[in-house]
Design brief:
This protein is α/β, with parallel strands linked by helices. Helix content is 35%, strand content 18%. The protein is built from 15 helices and 19 strands. The chain has helices spanning 13-23, 60-70, 77-97, 129-143, 209-216, 244-247, 274-286, 304-310, 312-322, 378-398, 408-421, 429-443, 450-467, 481-505, 523-526; strands at residues 2-9, 30-34, 50-51, 111-112, 122-123, 147-150, 152-160, 163-171, 177-187, 221-222, 227-233, 251-253, 295-298, 331-340, 343-345, 357-359, 364-365, 528-535, 538-545. The strands form 4 sheets. Strands 1, 2, 6, 7, 8, 9 and 16 form a 7-stranded mixed β-sheet that branches. Strands 17-15-10-18-19 form a 5-stranded mixed β-sheet. It is globular and about 65 Å long.
């Protein structure tokens, strides 16, 4: 039987940071398992940068306050303070590990402005920061000789008596299920943006499998109703145009040529937080000042030299997908699903309610982002809590022996997978997936109403029934992406239901959760985290307290 002290599921920034840190701890055997090659992980799509208080005039306390305010005061402040205090050291670690950050004329790390921050604090590598960090960590992973199960997919966590003891996983390349025994498992599987299929910045692989695995094993999912929309995505395919465009001085204009953010965030203008700017764009379109459902991102005044130095990827994406050169023309953009603030509920040490199971990165809900994540805080979150998860898991693993478990896990999973392959009737998976994306975009979008949310919930429940009959055309065992897609789609529908239920229940507007029937934040009744547990009849909602240390809730103004 395959066996590891720490098994990391997922090879994005959180997963690889966890593995690299674990490998530095004596007598720890660590391995990474990922359904894609590590360098194809979605972390590579992060463009703009990573936040840290790096300049003499900045303080980590200011970073913490900006993050608490950005979260609409539902982020847990102990975790936020820890993340922000640790941020500068983590950026320097990355630099020493080989990341070629941009530098200013004095030779120091260059920084740019990002939304919702009181001053510039975002370090960056052009507009390919996630890609650069991903390569740095992969080099560190390789240098340490860490085992990687590439193109493997976990179908079940082995949890008995409240203790995680390993996983059952599918070897996608060679076919067949395997049991991997582990003293600890770290979930680092990323977000679930493909729930909004066709209307998301997320990669095809972002199906939230880790969230469903933990949920099915008994861990609660936290704050799933808080789904972030990014203000600048391409209408044709949802591809992200980084917030760095606005950080470097880009404008948002409506059909009249007006910089409309003056009406919504007069102090911060285009550098308001994601939720506020996305709502402003949507209002402009709804009130007839949009252009074919979009507004315009204008960076023409920045000049070709600056664009090629700091935003080369933006130019490449616009030319490739729209045939527009942003050096000379404004680019039509609209809000698109971008980030999952909720996820596997953990404490500030990345621990879940299941012993031996940890979570970090976008699949986790620490919660440092609360109801609305600030740009450039996501890379920081993955790295800080990936490292923390490794240190906690190693501590647990060193004091724990490998535990035995029932022999039935493998056979029961084999029977379950056979059930997928045996399907012959019903509609195509692609049809169901597309309908899911439409239902969620219409019901769980930038603005929400009771009627639209209820329609989305009913549609998702209908799709959960239909997906049980969807045929698997590929009956083979080798690289069966048809089978993989079926499991992923069931996972996404499960999470979509939880998003709907949490949103319908939360009768207020906070951060990215904006209801037209309850348009104000309600701290008296809703200053609490939503927790979703798997019950006998489906999701069961409960609530937990928000950790407040220094920052009392107040109205957000930008």
């Amino acid at each position: 039987m395959l066996q590891h002290d720490i098994l990391v599921i997922g090879a994005g920034l959180a997963g690889m940071r966890a593995a690299v840190r674990a490998a530095e701890i004596p007598k720890i055997n660590v391995a990474v398992l990922s359904k894609v090659h590590p360098l194809r992980s979605h972390s590579g799509a992060a463009e703009g940068g990573i936040n840290a208080a790096l300049t003499p005039e900045d303080r980590w306390e200011d970073h913490a306050f900006d993050t608490v305010k950005g979260s609409d005061y539902i982020g847990d402040q102990d975790a936020i303070e820890f993340m922000c205090e640790e941020a500068p050291a983590e950026v320097y670690w990355l630099e020493h590990a080989g990341t070629l950050f941009n530098r200013d004329k004095a030779g120091d790390l260059d920084i740019r402005a990002f939304g919702g921050a009181v001053r510039p604090r975002t370090a960056f590598v052009h507009d390919i920061t996630g890609h650069a960090l991903l390569n740095t960590l992969y080099e560190q992973l390789t240098a340490r000789g860490i085992s990687v199960y590439e193109e493997w997919f976990v179908t079940r966590l082995i949890v008995e008596d409240g203790v995680c003891k390993g996983v059952v996983a599918w070897d996608v390349i060679n076919g067949g299920l395997n049991v991997i025994q582990a003293k600890t498992v770290i979930m680092a599987t990323g977000g679930n943006g493909r729930i909004y299929h066709g209307r998301t910045t997320n990669a095809w692989s972002c199906t939230g499998d880790g969230m469903s695995l933990a949920y099915q094993a008994g861990a609660p999912l936290g704050d799933m109703e808080f789904v972030q929309f990014h203000p600048t995505t391409l209408k044709s395919n949802g591809v992200l145009l980084t917030e760095a465009n606005r950080g470097e001085g880009g404008y948002l204009r409506n059909a009249l040529g007006e910089r409309f953010m003056a009406n919504y965030a007069p102090e911060k203008m285009e550098l308001g937080p994601h939720d506020l700017v996305s709502r402003a764009e949507t209002i402009e379109v709804l009130e007839g000042r949009g252009i074919d459902g979009c507004v315009l991102l204008d960076i023409t005044h920045l000049g070709e030299a600056k664009i090629m130095h700091k935003l080369p990827s933006t130019r490449e994406l616009c030319e490739a997908f729209l045939g527009i050169d942003p050096v000379h023309e404004p680019v039509p953009v609209r809000p698109g699903q971008h980030y999952t603030m909720g996820g596997i509920r953990t404490n500030r040490y990345a621990e879940t309610e299941i012993h031996g199971l940890y979570a970090a990165g976008e699949c986790a809900c620490v919660s440092v982002h609360g109801a609305n994540r600030l740009g450039a805080n996501s890379l920081l979150d993955t790295l800080i809590f990936g490292r923390v998860a490794a240190e906690r898991a190693a501590e647990y693993a060193r004091s724990t022996a490998y535990q035995t478990f029932s022999d039935s896990w493998l056979t029961s999973e084999e029977e379950r997978i056979k059930g997928y392959v045996g399907r012959t009737g019903g509609q195509k998976l692609a049809t169901i997936r597309n309908e899911q994306g439409i239902a969620m975009a219409e019901g769980m979008g930038v603005f929400r109403t009771p009627e639209r949310m209820q329609r989305a919930l009913e549609k998702i429940k209908e799709l959960q029934e239909r997906v049980q009959q969807a045929p698997i055309d590929d009956k083979g065992a080798i690289f069966n992406t048809d089978l993989l897609g079926a499991v992923e789609l069931e996972n996404m529908l499960e999470q979509a239901e939880i998003i709907c239920l949490g949103a319908i229940a939360r009768k207020e507007s906070r951060g990215a959760h904006s209801r037209l029937d309850f348009d104000k934040r309600d701290d008296e009744n809703w200053m609490k985290h939503t927790l979703a547990y798997l019950g006998e009849g489906g999701p069961r909602l409960a609530y937990g307290p928000v950790t407040v240390t220094h920052y009392q809730p107040e109205e957000r103004k930008y």
